[in-house]
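Dear support,

I submitted the protein below through the web form. The confirmation email said the job was done, but the results page showed an empty box. After a refresh the structure appeared. I'm attaching both so you can tell me whether what I see now is the final result or a partial one.
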Amino acid sequence: VIGAYSLDKLQAKVVESFSAVPSLPSLPRMDNDEQQTGSTDTNANTNTDAFYASMNVQPFRSNPCTWESKIDPQQTPIVKCGMPFQPTSLNRIIRSIPVKDKHSLSITFQIPPQYQHWESKPCDYISHLLGHEAEGSLLSSLKETSWVNTCCAGVGDGGYENASGHALFCMTFMLTKEGVDHWEEILDRMYMYLGMMRHYIHNGDGLPTWIHEELKSIQEMSHKFEDDATPVDLAESIAECMVPFACLPPERLLDGDALLFKFNGDVIRELVDDYLIPANARVDLTSSTFGRASDFDEHVSNMNVDHGNSNDENENENHSMNSKSGDAIDFTLETAGEPYTEPIFGMKYWSHPIPEALTNQWLESREPKL
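What the results page shows now:
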């Protein structure tokens, strides 16, 4: 809460405005809740208990109205909904038409929620290696081919990328026009780099800890000398960090989401081995070489709208997921046919499953080796 008053006046106003709100009403009430809130609504208690029973969730709660009265992040109801991508959306390539001239390649892996790893932030370690630009890096290798200009990797800050039920680890390459035709080779080199990381993970002492210490020092320096936030932004940031699934203790509300505190090689190994795999990825290739939206007849393309609301799983897989012509590798505008039209923003795209032969090639490339 911010305001042009003293802390005592702000506290008094908060107590006056919110003291009548029941403590954690979304959780099943405990015996001492009635003493604190004066509520005796047994119907509300029964309904809340039934809700959590239906979700098979056992929320942890002790000391109501204290910091410890929060839900285990692994037991929040949304976790039961699973990962955001359906199986039919994975291991396929989506070619889309941009609004302006642009050539980019993105591969997105869905991974477990990462909030509980706030001390070690394993995705920061992985993204640091994959997105490195120095000699010997993945980018330096791709620049030699004149296919890629820049790249970046990691989990974004947005709610759809970093949520309580999942996280999305994305690697994006900004391509040259020539690189558009070599997307599968670019991803093959990325998987080769993951294979090199797996070699160090499974041999000797594992991944070097000095990389973690280097990242830790960089983040400490950045946090120490960052510009002061406005009062509104600071209050908003702290409020976001106070949500139960963020897992931050009160003494780390100001820096827990920005700093590294310990190294956890086991979580890094789990992510690289089990989640950064072709079967768990979606590839997006966006290029103005595919044309502009105005190049396609509106009347015809609207006949091919992906509404995404069919209850027939086979229909979804065979119609709204797969373009009617062309394939993932031998793609040309002459043979691809009319693109689909995304129903919300009207984006034009083609969708094809990635061939098994290419998937097997990537699996071979990510085997642990130098």
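Response: this is the final, complete result; the empty box was a page-load delay. The first strand starts at residue 92 and ends at 96.
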